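Quick one:
INPUT:
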């Protein structure tokens, strides 16, 4: 067992840190705030130009062949500067990784280099109005007709669909299958497809998720992703685990902890000691989460797709974010509810208090993560 980073990893951290220092500018945040978006196309293009979008993919598919510890370092350093990485996540982690895991050679060669060059972005649409945590209850229908698929139904809460080029959609292709887990397939659907309407839904975080209405949306056969009717196996074995492991926010937690420490440092109030202890406790847990994150990255590099650990890192970091935002309001008092650059911590506490549900619910709620950990990590029977 070796806990040290290699020279390559250390050098890479330095490169990303320097990039983050110079490229994550106040103008980027002002622009996103104005557009009500968590995505910044110009910044995403700069990440792609450095070869960091899909860096973990083989070179033949547009990647750099780097290991997943590089991806952890990249996320940490950029999150530490609050950099916008959302489309990197939806395109690379949700969609691209699924294409790598179970796509055809044609799909890999078409999608991955384009995602890596920043020319194509993706979103992942599983959830439906009547199929949230019980996602396998999905009803969006795909019927085969004349060599293509015709999609009808509705999706909801799709992050990033408003500006994605493709939406990876889970659809029911065999409604007569004996169980709800059978007869599901995945499709890569161009967002510009006739019959597909994307309606943004504003969240308390200020960003949008989306509702999509599919009315006779025609999808060519080659955009069926993975084996027909076997989609649920791929979703649970790969896609959801990639998603959960990929949305952990360790860099963000480290940064918020550091900023609050500087404020507590100068505080002389009677509660300052208690806040100091709470912050110290959080730091201990954040460091444990950080190392769990490195282990998850390492497991992926060994060719494993860890189900329990992916849920652990997701629920752990989301709930730590909730707790640190909560502590932030104690530390900052009413000032923690102020918005804008002039507010303490540039209004970030107020923002995290508003947007915490994004982190808690996206990728599956904490209850669902705990169900998965109970089953896959503790060997308890599956919930009925
Ligand atoms: C900001 C945001 C972004 C999202 N992005 C995407 C996306 O990009 N793509 C996508 O497909 N989906 C996305 N989702 C959906 C998300 O992944 C959740 O799975 C979904 O929101 C949960 O469904 P629901 O909201 O209908 O809650 P419900 O499933 O109705 O759950 C309600 C409550 O019941 C609890 N509950 C439900 N079932 C169980 C159970 N078996 N055991 C214990 N407790 C249970 C839940 O934990 C929750 O507290 C997003 C959601 C949000 C809020």
């Amino acid at each position: 067992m070796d806990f040290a980073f290699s020279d390559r990893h250390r050098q890479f951290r330095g490169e990303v840190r320097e990039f983050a220092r110079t490229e994550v500018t106040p103008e980027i945040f002002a622009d996103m705030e104005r557009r009500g978006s968590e995505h910044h196309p110009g910044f995403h293009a700069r990440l792609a130009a450095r070869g960091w979008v899909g860096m973990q993919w083989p070179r033949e598919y547009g990647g750099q062949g780097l290991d997943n510890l590089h991806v952890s370092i990249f996320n940490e350093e950029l999150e530490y500067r609050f950099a916008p990485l959302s489309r990197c996540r939806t395109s690379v982690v949700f969609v691209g990784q699924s294409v790598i895991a179970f796509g055809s050679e044609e799909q890999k060669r078409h999608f991955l280099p384009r995602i890596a060059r920043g020319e194509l972005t993706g979103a992942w649409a599983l959830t439906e109005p009547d199929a949230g945590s019980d996602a396998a209850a999905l009803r969006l229908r795909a019927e085969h007709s004349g060599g293509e698929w015709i999609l009808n139904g509705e999706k909801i809460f799709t992050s990033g669909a408003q500006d994605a080029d493709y939406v990876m959609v889970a659809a029911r292709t065999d409604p007569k299958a004996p169980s709800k887990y059978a007869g599901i397939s995945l499709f890569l659907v161009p967002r510009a497809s006739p019959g597909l309407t994307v309606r943004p839904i504003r969240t308390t975080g200020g960003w949008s998720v989306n509702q999509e209405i599919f009315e006779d949306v025609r999808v060519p056969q080659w955009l069926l992703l993975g084996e027909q009717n076997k989609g649920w196996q791929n979703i649970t074995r790969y896609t959801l685990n990639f998603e959960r492991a990929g949305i952990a926010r360790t860099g963000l937690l480290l940064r918020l902890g550091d900023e609050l420490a500087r404020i507590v440092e100068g505080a002389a109030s009677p509660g300052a000691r208690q806040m100091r202890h709470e912050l110290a406790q959080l730091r201990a847990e954040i460091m444990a989460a950080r190392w769990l994150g490195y282990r998850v990255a390492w497991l992926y590099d060994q060719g494993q797709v860890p189900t329990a650990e992916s849920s652990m890192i997701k629920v752990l970091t989301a709930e730590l974010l909730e707790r640190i935002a909560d502590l932030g309001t104690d530390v900052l008092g009413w000032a923690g509810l102020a918005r804008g650059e002039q507010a303490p911590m540039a209004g970030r506490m107020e923002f995290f208090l508003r947007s915490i549900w994004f982190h808690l619910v996206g990728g599956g709620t904490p209850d669902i993560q705990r169900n998965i950990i109970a089953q896959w990590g503790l060997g308890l029977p599956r919930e009925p």
